[in-house]
Amino acid sequence: MGREDSESQGGARSDEEAANGKTSGVPIQANPQQLDLPVQSPLYHAEQSDRYQRQALILDYERQFDCRLVAVVDQIFGWSVTFFEELIYDANPNQDLHLLLDTPGGDGEIAVRLARAAQTRCRELTVVVPDKAKSAGTVLALGAHRIIMGPTSDLGPVDPQFQIGDNTLASAKDIIAAVDDAVVKVQTSPETYPLFASLLSDLTGLMYQQAKRALEHTDDLLRAAITSNPDRSPEVIEEMCNRLHGPLIQDPQIHGAVFGGTEALSTGLPIELIDPSSDQWQLIWRLWTKYFSILPARIYEGSRASKIIRFAG
């Protein structure tokens, strides 16, 4: 079960603060000779030092690559809309937006909403994938102008997912296959019914039907994701839908199918394969490892706001 920790506080910073190396009114590195007392209390500042270090890296990235950078590390479900809006509500529509995204997936329709929200707040949207952006994460990335991928990056099939329990995802294909397989085996061997009833206790008939309907509308979801980029013409949208149907919907046999940078580039997606020795990837990787070190958690962070909900385990 999740709990909100004290890192869920964030704040606006002025341009003058940014220029002086501050975030949320707090010096990133205090100079003992010229002590600028923080807005927060000393203990609070000390407790939040990891957050300020991450925000310092975000500010460094923004300065070097002339953009706004926000990070989302989470499953994509309804709560993501509000948390993401908090990161971009005051974004400059004439500035590029970079989204560092790591997710095992979630609700594809929510992902389309996030892509549309992002596109209305920027000149161009770039999705940065340091590790994985599976399922709904790939849907979100399809709405971007660019997708930055490195040697560790992975996208995945556009396969609808459902949340089972507190923090477990199951793909529509897996749900349908599990139920169909159980039905066949119980019909041929009725004595196995208690076993399969136990194994599938988290699934309901309604969820099975929802999974089937979601799978039938995957092409519509793919089209909605691609169309969320307002700079694509109807011809480009149609071409991308036709080209991506096979590798993202029809061909993958398992939800966890690998779809790395080379595979993604071969489909014609706007992939930028970044040199792992470049300053940009080194900065991305340094920031990502700081998020990785506090997992499991729900993370929405930028230079102006931060929402971290940690999970036990």
Could you please describe the fold and organization of this structure?
The chain is an alpha/beta fold and 313 residues long. It has a single domain, classed as 2-enoyl-CoA Hydratase, Chain A, domain 1 (Alpha-Beta Complex), CATH 3.90.226. 45% of the residues lie in helices and 17% in strands. The protein is built from 13 helices and twelve strands. It has an eight-stranded mixed β-sheet with strand order 1-12-11-4-5-6-7-10, sandwiched between helices. It has a two-stranded antiparallel ribbon with strand order 2-3. It has a two-stranded antiparallel sheet with strand order 8-9. β8 (161-164) and β9 (168-171) form a beta hairpin. α4 runs parallel beside α5 (108-119), α5 (108-119) runs parallel beside α6 and α7 (172-188) crosses α9 (205-216). The N and C termini lie close together (9 Å).
